Amino acid sequence: MSNSRRTFAIISHPDAGKTTLTEKLLLQGGAIHLAGEVKARGQARRARSDWMKIEQQRGISVTSSVMTFEKTAPDGSTITFNLLDTPGHEDFSEDTYRTLTAVDSAIMVIDAAKGIEPQTRKLFEVCRLRSVPIITFINKVDREGRACFDLLDEVADKLALDVCPMSWPVGMGGLFEGILDIATGKVSRPEGGSKEFLGKVDENVTLPEDVGEELELAQAGYPEFDLEAYRSGDLTPVYFGSALKNFGVAELIDAIAKYAPPPRPQPTEAGPVEPENKEVSGFIFKVQANMDPMHRDRIAFMRLVSGTFKRGMKLTPSGLGKPIAIHSPILFFAQDREIADSAEPGDIIGIPNHGTLRVGDTLSEKNQIRFTGLPNFAPEILRRVALKDPTKTKQLRKALDDLSEEGVIQVFYPEIGSQWIVGVVGQLQLDVLISRLQAEYKVEAMLEASPFDTARWIRGSDQALRDFAEFNKMNLAKDRDGDPVFMAKSAWDVGYQQERNPDLTFSATKER
């Protein structure tokens, strides 16, 4: 049943502890059996979601991975958790944005010493656009950090959210003695187990005198938890903990099971599609090539929106128009994969394909709906691609097509000139491009300065486009779909052309 699904993402600034928290959630859920953090240095610190070579070298997540695990909820029911790991690096807003279109809720991780950082805020705003409910996890309370009230007030003020503390640290940094569950009055202590605190304190533990005072102030000063306010995106329950020491993680899983919404309706051009709809439908929010370098595999990640999917079903991709049979759908358990015989709304399934499916495609039984809200963004950096070995032109074209299909880069083919131009929203994507060209396609390439600063998709009547092309051939290109793109030397150039060509639309986004 779709009510037993919780599909969520973790958002944070780099280094706030998202990768460690992901790992501990998987450990608690039984998806992995050894925490990579046991060995504290080098590649052993990478969680199972960080598989790409450049991620292992830099210690950051640059792809979005999917991890599924099951756990028994407090009421005895079995909940299936679909965790979508999002890139935290500021250069990966586009891939992260698309991933956040596929979730029903999110955990926001905040470093107790640093509070809200720029990337956290940016990702939160993406969630707010879609009214995605947020649970806040204030991490690293076992280290020296800011006062709890400062952190709570910052979340409330900077994000315009009501905050409701659900747990409280007993001491911080060197004085850290455990995490108090406010509802039950139990303290999870570093030695393990729980001790009653309110009214019944373990006599061997000296608890700070000010904890009770802080709790009284917190309960008087912040609103009580309201499920409706949380699910509408107006209130965030706040949990304190340490992902590294595995404190507060079990409580976080319980909170997602208890409070996070089951699969929500998804927008289409004709109105929202409810999970209860009988027709099977879903959308592709990510394509990943070469997850297994030994096999040139290409996996399209589909968020199932409605109906019960059965292995072998025929679904029609909106970008193709003819049905395809899905014989080997995949469920992801960290790095392990299983063939999925069936899937429910909220589940993420991987569909192996050879370039048939692309980001933004809707898959459905009748091909009568089209999910919206998965755009391409105008690139902020444009570079020409130069081959070190000119005989590898064919391999380069294949690689660029593959990587643009994934959404790592965009490729533009100029109307005049032979050098292809790649566009990205952040510098790190260029590093990923060069790394993957070499590692996966054995193509050595360099990036050179482009004469263009930005790009805009142009739309209008055939005549208006022909008239524009007559005077601007040098500035025109086509994207990988064959759609016309105006390559601009500056933002001023865009404005100037808009004024001169009122019959054309110059768009910074393109929705598929």
UniProtKB/TrEMBL annotation:
Keywords: Cytoplasm, GTP-binding, Nucleotide-binding, Protein biosynthesis
PROSITE patterns given in the database record: G_TR_1, G_TR_2
Residues annotated as domain Tr-type G: 3-264
Keyword Nucleotide-binding applies: yes
Record Pfam families: EF-G_D2, GTP_EFTU, RF3_C
Intracellular or extracellular location(s): Cytoplasm
Superkingdom classification of source: Bacteria
Keyword Cytoplasm in record: yes
Positions with a binding annotation for GTP: 12-19, 85-89, 139-142
Primary subcellular site in the record, as a coarse category: cytoplasm
Family note: Belongs to the TRAFAC class translation factor GTPase superfamily. Classic translation factor GTPase family. PrfC subfamily.
Cross-referenced PANTHER family: PEPTIDE CHAIN RELEASE FACTOR RF3 (PTHR43556:SF2)
Purpose: Increases the formation of ribosomal termination complexes and stimulates activities of RF-1 and RF-2. It binds guanine nucleotides and has strong preference for UGA stop codons. It may interact directly with the ribosome. The stimulation of RF-1 and RF-2 is significantly reduced by GTP and GDP, but not by GMP.
Name under which the protein is recorded: Peptide chain release factor 3
